[in-house]
Amino acid sequence: MIELLKKTPLNEAHHELRARMADFAGWQLPIWYTSILEEHRVVRSGVGMFDVSDMGRVWITGRKAGAFLDRVLTRPASRLEIGSSQLCLLCLEDGGILDDLWAYRLGTERYLIVWNAGDIEQKLGWLQRWAGSDPDIVIQDKTADTVMVAVQGPAVCQLQNLKGVCRLPRFGHTQTRIENVEVVAARTGYTGEDGFEIIGDAANALQLWESFMKQGVKPCGLGARDSLRLEAGMLLYGRDMDRNTNPFEAGLGWLVEMDDGDFIGKSALLEIKRQGVKRKHIGFQMTGQGIARSGYRIVRCGQEVGKVTSGGYAPTLDANIGFGYVPIELATIGTQIEIMIRNKPVAAQVVNRQFYKRGA
Amino acid sequence: MAPKEYKYTPEHEWICPESKNKGKVGLADYAQSQLGDVVFLDLPAPGTQVEQGKKMGEVESVKAVSDIFAPVSGQVLEINQTVIDEPGLVNKDPYGAGWLVRLELSKPSELDALMDSDKYNEFVAELSENESEQAGD
Hints:
By secondary structure, chain A is of the alpha+beta class. Chain A contains seven helices and 20 strands.
């Protein structure tokens, strides 16, 4: 069976810019336009933009929308004020992570969730299963009908058409117009910089994109998206966490709120927390020569102790960094580990996972 | 464009014969454009014997890891320390400052099996054509 790659509403624009395209989670997306390093640096020093339309956008509405989300998410969404948002997890009954997502409260009974591009059918099925046939819970996947552009970097508020939304606090969002295009604009991102994620109708995608192009905002691809989030200490679903990892070993315990009502996975997570985790997601920096890549083995004295989950060159630090899982006793900052690179152990050291901090 | 005096492999290495049995080796422009920003090179130490068509090192860009194959057999005389310190030279000047190693050829006749610049340019043009066809799907 031939599976056709999905194309975002900006696909033609990327081809016109002669972007290097690749398959990512079933989507044809730009990896880079001119250079990953250039694109990475522009987001750290100026402003760049990403077509992130591959991210799933699902509206949850109805009288019981809030109560429903409280049940399936690890942090209560109904507690959010209208115009605010939060990162949270979708967990299975056994506490395994099904996805990480942003929940935005648009109105009293209106929410938007933005999740990763992978496993859409399974995740929608999961939500439907818990919503049942309740007419007061309406789940609408509008990913194909909308576009999502992330405009990120310290100079973002110098852009004329974003002046209006620059009053928003961090994680705040609003329904507004940018260049006469109706959008939801949120002060969120995945780069470690100030910025906005902007969602509009697919029909207006090009108009929105062009309005930023005209102001000299540099288009940036998946390559920079990955290196920026890695430097900023942000996890990627499918690499750094999946169904077989729980939030505590992933270092995402802060996204699990046990004090409020019941949610799916809560009893399993309480038990995991009580027992304590055996392994931990850590950050490391190479002290020897070499680049660690996802899937490489982490060793100590010739014994495999874990696997690299993300890794690469960090342009802002000019160092080679990565994430991986190691037994809890090796998770302390300063611990010496080795990464097997082409059958040779190369020295590395456990460091704080947030390699890069804005304004530092 | 690929320099006229160089010889090329189908894996996009080049060799510039300096004398009868010595030559500099590097990566062709097409290779660097496919890889993107090069950030790390793993090259054979001086003294290492390499064999034509066999892997002699690795090049890593931000996104990808790729093998480097020996264009001819011989011994590594020298590695380019400048490119080790600044791997981006492979992108900036693939046929010049971005050279990788100098070899002493053990079988200079192996050069005859490599492509000259005309043949190599044709080879790359064909690859690029296939690529744009795929992108246009």
